[in-house]
Automatic annotation (TrEMBL):
GO molecular function: oxidoreductase activity, acting on the CH-OH group of donors, NAD or NADP as acceptor
InterPro entries cross-referenced by the UniProt entry: 3Beta_OHSteriod_DH/Estase (IPR002225), Lipid_A_modif_metabolic_enz (IPR050177), NAD(P)-bd_dom_sf (IPR036291)
Originating organism: Auxenochlorella protothecoides (Green microalga)
Keywords: Membrane, Oxidoreductase, Transmembrane, Transmembrane helix
Gene Ontology process terms (BP): steroid biosynthetic process
Name of the molecule in the record: 3-beta hydroxysteroid dehydrogenase/isomerase domain-containing protein
Residues covered by the 3-beta hydroxysteroid dehydrogenase/isomerase domain: 27-260
SUPFAM superfamilies found in the cross-reference section: NAD(P)-binding Rossmann-fold domains
Family: Belongs to the 3-beta-HSD family.
Pfam families on file: 3Beta_HSD (PF01073)
Domain of life of the organism encoding this protein: Eukaryota
Membrane-crossing residue ranges in chain numbering: 343-363
């Protein structure tokens, strides 16, 4: 995002907990929980892109206190700083999870209500929904002038709801998938082969943010003011089929065993229970958590017609080979690639036995 904006000729300040040098970008180390820091760097800004979040996947999803502090309190800090500093536009990076919570959605659109907050199985989805509501509710808020007096301008806001993000250099979904394959853990798939979900290439997502900011720059915030948009490549696909070209290209075998979604969901639930008990002494990395199982195994994809019509969004179709992800990993993968270890088979067997015992106990209760 910062590189793209700098390339367009804008003066860019990037705030992150870890900053990588980039030409034309002023880097500031920090996070959105620091309200005073935000008010310092938002002075004179024309637009703020609020992309920060915590708890999207893996072990992070179980750290509920930090999730709330970053996603809810941090977003409140961002909104307050925009109002105090006279920032005209705020673009918020939301998520599909505000609407999706495990119930199948086919070609949904922005008219769908938010998923009930208390029905989410994870804190990330719940807090992102709260944050999106706060951002959109702030649309039209009057800036605060000196000494707390109302300012002359107003803040206009919009929220983008991206699908799962991929691309060369993406550091969450792709590296984890490849590392699991290297360890020999990619032994099976789950859910129906016909289940579909959306993906979004990072370049398409960045372009959507730029387009949203340009819309907000119009009088009264343009069409984007106070609106939410689903953002994807517009080509729903089965998640396992999506990753297959990358894994095959890296030399890993395609798994043929397919487990029922319920079995894997129960395994993830059991893993979360174990983590809750032992994490004070062993904060281990769960192989799966329930929200991820639902994201991968339950059909949910959305129309991007609203973004096309109102923002001028026109995604470029690509895949993991075309976008350079395969080449990126080939350059960085160790020469020796484990193809499957006995320990992974034992792990799967033990996990299935554990799920069986839990289900058996529940049925007898």
């Amino acid at each position: 995002m910062a590189k793209r904006l700098a390339a367009l000729g804008y003066d860019v300040v990037a705030l992150d907990v870890r900053v990588e040098p980039a030409a034309g970008v002023e880097a500031v180390v920090g996070d959105v929980r620091d309200a005073k820091l935000l008010q310092g760097i938002f002075q004179g800004a024309d637009v703020v892109f609020h992309t920060a979040s915590y708890g999207m996947s893996m072990r992070e999803q179980l750290h509920t206190v930090i999730i709330h502090a970053v996603n809810v309190q941090g977003t409140d800090n961002v909104v307050a700083a925009c109002i105090a500093c006279g920032v005209p536009s705020l673009v918020y990076t939301s998520t599909y999870n505000t609407v999706f919570g495990g119930v199948e959605i086919v070609a949904g659109d922005e008219s769908l209500p938010l998923f009930p907050l208390d029905a989410h199985c994870d804190a990330y989805s719940r807090t992102k929904a709260l944050a999106e509501q706060a951002v959109l509710a702030a649309d039209g808020a009057r800036h605060v002038g000196k000494d707390g007096d109302p300012g002359r301008g107003r803040l206009h806001t919009t929220a983008l709801r991206p699908a799962a993000i991929y691309g060369a250099g993406e550091r969450r979904h792709l590296p984890r998938t490849v590392e699991n394959a290297r360890r020999g853990w990619y032994k099976c798939t789950f859910g129906k082969p016909s289940s579909l979900t959306d993906m979004v290439h990072v370049d398409n997502l960045v372009e959507a943010h730029v387009l949203a900011a340009r819309s907000l720059a119009h009088a009264n915030g343009g069409e984007a003011a106070g609106q939410a948009y689903f953002i994807s490549d517009g080509s729903p696909i089965n998640m396992f089929r999506f990753f297959e070209p990358l894994l095959v290209g890296l030399g890993f075998p395609t798994p043929h065993l397919r487990l029922p979604l319920l079995v894997v969901y129960c395994l993830a639930w059991l893993t979360e229970l174990i983590w809750q008990v032992v994490h004070p002494v062993w904060d281990f990395e769960p192989l799966l958590v329930r929200a991820e199982v639902l994201k991968v195994g339950v059909t949910h994809y959305f129309s991007i017609d609203k973004a096309r019509t109102e923002l001028g969004y026109a995604p470029i179709s690509t895949d993991l080979v075309q976008c350079g992800a395969l080449e990126w990993f080939l350059e960085r993968m160790p020469e020796e690639r484990p193809r499957g270890r006995g320990g992974s088979v034992l792990f799967v067997l033990a996990a299935l036995i554990g799920v069986f015992l839990v289900l058996h106990a529940l049925l007898r209760a």
